[in-house]
Every structure is written in C-alpha cells, then in structure tokens.
Amino acid sequence: MARVPVKLVKWNDIVEWSRGLAKLIIESGYKPSIIIAVARGGYVPARLLADFLGVENMISIQSQHWTEAAKAAEKAILKFPFRVDLRGYKALLVDDIIDTGETVLLAKRYIENEWKPDELRVAALQWISPIAKLKPDYYYLEVKEWVWFQYPWTRLEDTMQFINRMLRETAKEKGVKEFTYEEIKSLCREWYNIEVEDFYYREALDMLLKKGILVKRGNKYIVVINS
Ligand code: AMP
Predict the structure, then answer these.
(1) How far does residue 65's CA lie from ligand 1's centre (Å)?
(2) Domain span at residue 26?
(3) Do 75 and 170 fall into the same domain?
(4) Do 31 and 127 belong together in one domain?
(5) Residue 134 has pLDDT above 50, yes or no
(6) What are 152-188's pLDDT values in tens digits?
(7) pLDDT tens digits for 92-132?
(8) At a CB cut-off of 8 Å and minimum separation 6, what does 16 contact?
(9) Ligand 1 pocket test: which of 96, 155, 194 has the largest number of ligand atoms within 8 Å of its C-beta?
(10) What CATH number does residue 157 fall under?
(11) Is residue 136 in a domain?
(12) Nearest residue (CA) to ligand 1, atom 12
C-alpha cells in the first residue's frame, strides 16, 4: 500500500483527455474566442484545447494555491494582477484539475470583475467532485476519491518534493539518514507506488544536492537535518 495516493498521468492521457474535453465544449455549442490558461497547471491543457477548438487568442493568469506537491497552501493568491480589456470576447478559463477549487474561483472572480469578458466559462481535465467548491462548466473526468495526479509537466518538481519528504520522514521514523540511489528508488515505489524515468530521479537528487538538502558521500545520499 502506497503511503501517499499518487497516480501517474502520461502525455498520451493528456492528449486524449483534452480532446475529449474539446468535444464536450463543441457539442455544447460554446465557441470561445479567447482561452485563458491558469498558470501553471492549465498551460498544456489550454494549449491543446486552443488547437482542438481552433482558437488563436490565448492569455494566462497566475493563480496559485498549492505550493508543494500534495500539500495545499492556506489561501490562493493572484501573482500578477494585470488588467486587460476582454469586452467583446467569449472566454474559456482552463485548468488541469479543480481540487479545492480555490485557484480557479479566485481567477474567475478577478477576470469577471476586471477583464469583463462578455461570457466566461470554466473547463478542466479533472474535477474532484466531493471536495471542489466550484463545478466547472466542462470537465472530462470526475474524480470521487482524492489522489495526487502526477502530471507530466510537474514530474521533476514532484519527484524532488516526494524524495525530500520521504527521506526526511524515514530519517525521523527509523533514524536512517543515508541512502543509495537504488534504495531511494525502491522507497519511492513503496511510498508513492509510481515509477518515473531514471533521469527524473537523478535530476531531482542533483537539485536536492544543489539546495543543500542532501549531501553526497561516496555512493550515499545523506539527509541534512534542519535544512
Ligand atoms: P485547487 O486550488 O485546490 O483547485 O488546486 C490548484 C492547482 O493545484 C491545480 O490547478 C493543480 O495544478 C494543483 N493540484 C491540486 N490538486 C491536485 C491533485 N489532486 N493532483 C494534481 N495536481 C493538483
């Protein structure tokens, strides 16, 4: 049993889901004239929707809620609250997943009040229905039990954060602070029940070394406590 419920999402899944989402939008008769990607998670699905829906106009808004993989920050914030006039446009706001819904709710309210498009609808690849404060107008998959979806665009960042958390907790629980590369990989399987390409583990470990979170001695990665 994995310690953290994680599901690996492949690039092909994303293309298939975005295509399915585009079909739902087309069938509904809504013809957006601009797509707004919620940065950063919405970028790839938004770009694919622009392709599948034949929309040329795209902008982005950065609304942020989750600071670390599978750990939510207290409150969503808008990072660059710029203004743009969207009167005359039918807009589609796109994110990867609606979990608590805080991120998209904040972006939606801001866009409606400040950018004033003629119409604004929300689309997401996935919607965690028992948790979300907002139901998107369009979603491809309804998720009934919370898991962390390990999307391809956060693979390195997530791998790094997962390794960091896992090694720290193992050090605390078992008093073991030194791990070989193979031990780290096998712990990752045990904790998260996923496996990513080797270069992700290598680059994640290099990042943790550069940040001073780990140090390397011989073939062992050592957890630096209190960093
Ligand atoms: P939220 O404000 O809780 O709806 O989530 C904001 C953003 O955090 C989403 O757009 C995703 O990029 C990321 N996120 C939240 N929950 C998950 C999850 N269960 N799996 C993967 N990414 C998530």
Answers:
(1) 8
(2) 6-148
(3) no
(4) yes
(5) yes
(6) 999 999 999 999 999 999 999 988 899 999 999 999 9
(7) 999 999 999 999 999 999 999 999 999 999 999 999 999 99
(8) none
(9) 96
(10) 1.10.10.10
(11) yes
(12) 41
Is 1 a domain residue?
no
How many Å lie between the centroid of ligand 1 and the Cα of residue 106?
14
Is residue 160 domain-shared with residue 144, that is, in the same domain? no
114, 148, 182 - which closes a domain: 148
- Does 156 reside within a domain? yes
Are 19 and 121 in the same domain?
yes
What pLDDT is stored for residue 3 in this prediction?
A: 85
Joined tokens for residue 108: 């939606």
Q: Which helix (H) or strand (E) holds 56?
A: none
Which of 134, 115, 5 minimizes the C-alpha distance to 65? 134
User: 10 Å Cβ neighbour count for 61?
Assistant: 24
Does one domain contain both 105 and 127? yes
**pTM tops 0.90, yes or no:** yes
Residue 74 class from Cβ within 10 Å (0-12 exposed, 13-18 middle, 19+ buried)? exposed
What does the block give as tokens for 126? 């996935």
Q: Which residues line ligand 1 (CB under 6 A)?
A: 41, 65-66, 72, 76, 95-103, 148-149
Which atom of ligand 1 approaches the CA of 151 most closely?
21
- Contacts with 206 (C-beta within 8 Å, 6 or more apart), sequence order: none
The DSSP code for 153 is G
